[in-house]
Design a protein that fits this description.
With 149 residues, the protein is mainly β. The protein contains 1 helix and 8 strands. 14% of the residues lie in helices and 46% in strands. The strands form 2 sheets. Strands 1, 4, 5, 7 and 8 form a 5-stranded mixed sheet that branches. A 3-stranded antiparallel sheet has the order 2-3-6, with no helix packed on it. It is elongated.
């Protein structure tokens, strides 16, 4: 009986120790512990996202409104969508940059699951486009063209 009681006490102590090691609060307080060398950090870096699909959206309104639907890739489980934004417009070319963030620590293991994110970036109304003119929308390393109405 004493042996069984001691086993139960040791098991309870082990479970309590395991729960305290795995648990924790979400208040962001690290208890004063500073990550040392070789310890992963929460720092992230911005990187260009792979572009999987581009589609020009022409909304039948007055004036006509133009947008581009972008399906960008999330190459692994660590990648997080960051933003899709127009970076420049020069003549008939509109440049858009789509970015993800990745852990700054390249030694962090990430799941090999490819994901996608869909964005719609408004290009403007018919006032900013000349009817009959072909425009190029460059998104990272991919292009899509359309003719203004």
């Amino acid at each position: 009986m004493l042996k069984r009681w001691m086993t139960l006490v040791l098991l309870a102590a082990a479970l309590a120790l395991g729960a305290s090691a795995c648990g924790g609060d979400d208040d962001g307080d690290d208890g004063g512990v500073t990550p040392g060398p070789g310890t992963p950090s929460d720092e992230r870096v911005v990187v260009d996202a792979p572009i999987d699909e581009l589609e020009i959206l022409i909304r039948e309104s007055f004036p006509v409104q133009y947008a581009v639907r972008i399906v960008s890739g999330l190459p692994n489980g660590c990648a997080q969508f960051h933003e899709a934004a127009i970076t420049s417009r020069s003549g008939t070319t509109i440049a858009i940059r789509v970015t993800n963030t990745m852990p700054a620590d390249t030694t962090i293991a990430c799941t090999a699951i490819y994901g996608q994110h869909e964005s719609v970036v408004e290009l403007g109304t018919g006032d900013g486009f000349t009817a009959g003119t072909e425009y190029t929308v460059r998104v990272n390393d991919k292009d899509v063209r359309f003719t203004a109405q």
